[in-house]
């Protein structure tokens, strides 16, 4: 999926000799650094680069040769995905101590156009080097080479066998069961809540979308791609001013209009993804009739309280989901999509709401499947045709 960006592309100075370097931004002023603070007037918690210094030893530094070996020379049969920033390959690496089973990894090789690719690569390393949460992808290490033939920037992640949420939601050969969808919503919300509220600094993720929600062997979600993440505002500030970057169809309207990035911009985007999960449709689908091309405009015609709401539910789960749970998710999505950013819920409120939806669904399904059900209970189950 294409990103939109107003970043200027800067030419990198390639070094004479090939060298592997530690991740740092070179030739850039502090104000250009995506990780630099926008305000220093108040005594503030440590910044991400400061926190990273303490933890950098946890990341492994790979040579290009190691990663070439891991991916059979970046063979295209090993390629598992491609995004705006580069290609992703499946590979295997040896454990650090040399013993034990090989480790399956995903290697992302960035298209480094000048310093821009380097900037995202660096942000990814510093953010992922600092965070630790079951719903965030684990970065194992990185590779950086500045050679006569250009610069190489790579990232090595734990491999996620079920790839991304996008691969399942919009792929006709895959159907995510309703229950799995709810669990994915909750896990992704927990990852985002941790970024917003669980660290010394607030982190604005900025690139929440279904292709960045990766799925492990049990379909547990993990957020990936921190290249566009930013430290949130500190002190009295309410926003961070940035160039507008992100992905069409996902970004909050006030952010697109003003470039003012807030924690609430992520919450809007979370609402967009909730609707993608409910409907199985992309945020923009050009091949649909005009009234259905923009997901958010289309779903407005089917309010969660109305009887027509069920018409927008992904046909692949119809007859196999809980309408009342879906309506609650629809209402939650609408609150995230409030035009007034201040009225959007916080991520921890979103997490609580989703936990409640899941609990209610569980209770409803366990009472529906009681073995000693009477005929009247059976009738009520029949009436609720959209059960979990
Ligand atoms: N750790 C991983 N394990 C397994 N597959 C992965 C992993 N990381 C990425 N992928 C796959 O590679 C695809 C491309 O990822 P990438 O982050 O480069 O681009 P994207 O998210 O699709 O788009 P964009 O560049 O606009 O963010 C993902 O959609 C996913 O299918
Ligand atoms: Mg991605």
TrEMBL record:
Listed name of the protein: non-specific serine/threonine protein kinase
Organism: Hibiscus trionum (Flower of an hour)
InterPro entries per record: Kinase-like_dom_sf (IPR011009), Plant_Ser_Thr_Prot_Kinase (IPR050823), Prot_kinase_dom (IPR000719), Protein_kinase_ATP_BS (IPR017441), Ser-Thr/Tyr_kinase_cat_dom (IPR001245), Ser/Thr_kinase_AS (IPR008271)
Record field: compositional bias (Low complexity): 34-49, 364-376
Domain Protein kinase: 74-358
Any one GO cellular component localisation term in the record: plasma membrane
Compartment annotation: Cell membrane
Phosphoprotein among keywords: no
Primary location: membrane
Comp. bias intervals (Basic and acidic residues): 19-29
Catalytic activity, as annotated: L-seryl-[protein] + ATP = O-phospho-L-seryl-[protein] + ADP + H(+); L-threonyl-[protein] + ATP = O-phospho-L-threonyl-[protein] + ADP + H(+)
Keyword entries, A-Z: ATP-binding, Cell membrane, Kinase, Membrane, Nucleotide-binding, Serine/threonine-protein kinase, Transferase
GO molecular function: ATP binding; protein serine/threonine kinase activity
Superkingdom to which the source organism belongs: Eukaryota
Sites where the protein binds ATP: 108
Pfam families: PK_Tyr_Ser-Thr (PF07714)
TM ranges: none
Region of interest (Disordered), residue spans: 1-52, 361-388
EC number assigned by the record: 2.7.11.1
Keyword Zinc: no
């Amino acid at each position: 999926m294409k990103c939109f960006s107003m970043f200027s592309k800067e030419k990198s100075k390639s070094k004479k000799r090939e060298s592997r370097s530690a991740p740092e931004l070179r030739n850039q002023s502090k104000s250009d650094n995506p990780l630099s603070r926008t305000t220093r007037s108040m005594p503030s918690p440590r910044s991400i680069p400061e926190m990273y210094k303490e933890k950098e030893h946890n990341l492994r530094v790979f040579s290009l040769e190691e990663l070439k070996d891991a991916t059979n020379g970046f063979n295209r049969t090993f390629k598992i995905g491609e995004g705006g920033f580069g290609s992703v390959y499946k590979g295997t690496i040896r454990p650090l101590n040399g013993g034990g089973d090989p480790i399956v990894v995903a290697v992302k090789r960035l298209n480094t156009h000048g310093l821009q690719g380097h900037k995202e690569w660096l942000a990814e390393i510093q953010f992922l080097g600092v965070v630790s949460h079951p719903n965030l992808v684990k970065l194992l290490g990185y590779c950086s080479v500045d050679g006569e033939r250009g610069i190489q920037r790579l990232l090595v992640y734990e491999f996620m066998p079920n790839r991304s949420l996008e691969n399942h939601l919009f792929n006709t050969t895959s159907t995510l069961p309703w229950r799995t969808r709810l669990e994915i919503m909750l896990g992704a919300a927990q990852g985002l809540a941790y970024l917003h509220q669980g660290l010394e600094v607030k982190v604005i993720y900025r690139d929440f979308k279904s292709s960045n929600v990766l799925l492990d062997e049990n379909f547990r979600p993990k957020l990936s791609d921190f290249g566009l993440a930013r430290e949130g505002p500190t002190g009295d500030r309410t926003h961070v001013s940035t160039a507008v970057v992100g992905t069409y169809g996902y970004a909050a309207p006030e952010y697109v209009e003003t470039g003012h990035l807030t924690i609430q911009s992520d919450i809007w985007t979370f609402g967009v993804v909730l609707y993608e999960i409910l409907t199985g449709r992309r945020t923009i689908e050009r091949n649909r009739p005009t009234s259905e091309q923009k997901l958010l405009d289309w779903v407005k015609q089917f309010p969660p309280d109305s009887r027509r709401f069920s018409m927008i539910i992904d046909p692949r789960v119809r007859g196999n989901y809980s309408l009342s749970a879906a309506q609650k998710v629809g209402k939650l999505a609408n609150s995230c999509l409030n035009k007034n950013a201040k009225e959007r819920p916080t991520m921890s409120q979103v997490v609580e709401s989703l936990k409640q939806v899941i609990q209610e669904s569980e209770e409803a399904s366990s009472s529906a499947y009681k073995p000693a059900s009477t005929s009247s209970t059976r009738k009520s189950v029949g009436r609720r045709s959209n059960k979990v």
